[in-house]
Design goal:
By secondary structure, the protein is α+β, with helices and mostly antiparallel strands. Helices cover 43% and strands 22% of the residues. It is built from 14 helices and ten strands. Strands 1, 2, 3, 4, 5, 6, 7, 8, 9 and 10 form a ten-stranded mixed β-sheet that branches. The protein is globular, with a radius of gyration of 24 Å. The mean pLDDT is 95.
């Protein structure tokens, strides 16, 4: 068996490159060799990084030049009662974070949601997007391309869907800026987050566009998708799953459990999340939805960079017949239960906690359920933080927990 120290020495001597180690040893030995090399070059000790709990080969499709694993503490909030379109009953919400007091806050919110009879959640729109950009001669050619696309959607569907047995091309929307034409393809990717699926399918459709028109493809992604960047188009048109969760909490529950009133929470939400966010020019109108999205993304193996879009949310609150109505609408939550990081052992176990690991029956139902669980977690987090602010207990709660 090849020794890790020998491999590290060969890299230092220039006989091998770092990324070539996997061709000369099993994945765990290659990772050990990289640790030895980095330790020698930097003076760091990587004992904890190297103490991971799964075969390194399980991560070969997720990372290159693997050294080991970073362990983020994972806990659960709940259980919380949910009435969703795909998710129902009581469940625990797995969350991975290094932020003290976050789980405690969301847990309090989950408890109050259950005391109020549970939260509603529904996925209202689905569609992963990819938007290539084409070059044309002028606006006359741009208009001709737009007309061609509208008349030949069927050909684009055939080309795109020939690359996948699961994905479905839902629509293609053209946008023109001078002599640049952007075609925003939108797909139903079922239980996959679907970014790779959409990219491969769109490339096949672009070949048809170039073969049948005078347009030239400049880039397979023209940033009108929009992936991993704040974007108004995602807030308006949605991307991935557009999901909303809401609840009506009786006044006595608000007063007894949250030590505030429905009116105070509603006013705070308006002045903070709506007016304050508008004054700041924010694309998100919420208190801390990103906290829950990020924690559940890490726990369940989602693409953590897509927290940028996933936290694009609006929280609303109003006093209704003396009770508190609260909602959170996440416009572009990009999640999946198959592929990517969902295959890693610890992330797969977190999906098992939710009962949504792998493909659903019908297809897409597991990813819908995951989106609803995240939305309810966000609702619990918003409720708890807004109430802590309204009751002026935020700093005292952090002090009590030693955070």
């Amino acid at each position: 068996m090849t020794d890790a120290a020998d491999l590290a020495a060969r890299v230092r001597e220039g006989d091998l490159r770092l990324h070539e180690l996997d061709d000369h040893a099993d994945a765990d030995t290659a990772a050990a060799a990289r640790r030895l090399l980095v330790e020698r070059e930097t003076g760091a000790t990587l004992d904890a990084v190297g103490d991971y709990g799964f075969p390194a080969e399980r991560a070969e499709s997720n990372i290159e030049n693997m050294l080991g694993a970073v362990q983020v503490p994972m806990g659960v909030a709940g259980p919380v009662a949910i009435d969703g379109g795909a998710a129902s009953g009581e469940t625990y919400l797995p969350m991975a974070t290094t932020e003290g007091a976050l789980l405690a806050s969301v847990n309090r919110g989950c408890s109050v949601l259950s005391d109020a009879g549970g939260a509603n959640a529904r996925v209202l729109k689905t569609g992963m997007t990819r938007a290539p950009v084409f070059r044309v001669e002028d606006v006359v050619e741009a208009e001709a391309l737009v007309s061609w696309v509208r008349d030949n959607v069927g050909d684009l569907v055939d080309a795109a869907e020939s690359t996948t047995s699961h994905g479905e091309l839902l629509d293609v929307t053209p946008y023109v800026v001078g002599n640049s034409v952007y075609l925003r393809f939108r797909y139903d990717t079922k239980d996959a987050m679907g970014m790779n699926m959409a990219t491969i399918a769109t490339e096949a459709a672009c070949d048809v566009v170039e073969a049948e028109t005078d347009a030239e493809l400049v880039a397979l992604s023209g940033n009108l998708c929009t992936d991993k960047k704040p974007a108004a188009i995602n807030a308006v048109e949605g991307r991935g799953r557009s999901v909303t969760a809401d609840v009506t909490i009786p006044r006595e529950v608000v007063e007894d459990r949250l030590h505030t009133t429905p009116g105070a929470v509603a006013e705070l939400n308006t002045r903070k999340n709506l007016v304050g966010s508008a004054k700041a020019g924010s694309l998100g109108f919420n208190a801390h939805v990103a906290n829950v999205v990020a924690a559940m993304f890490l726990a369940t193996g989602q693409d953590e960079a897509q927290v940028v879009e996933g936290a694009n949310a609006i929280t609303t609150a109003e006093e209704r017949d003396g009770d508190l109505y609260l909602s959170v609408s996440l416009a572009s939550l990009e999640v999946g239960t198959v592929g990517g990081g969902t295959k890693l052992p610890t992330q797969a176990e977190a999906l098992d906690v939710l009962g949504v690991r792998g493909g659903g029956d019908p297809a897409g139902s597991n990813a819908d359920a995951l989106a609803e669980y995240i939305a309810v977690g966000a609702l619990a987090g918003e409720l708890s933080l807004l109430s802590a602010l309204a009751s002026r207990h935020l700093s005292s709660a952090h002090a009590e927990l030693g955070r």
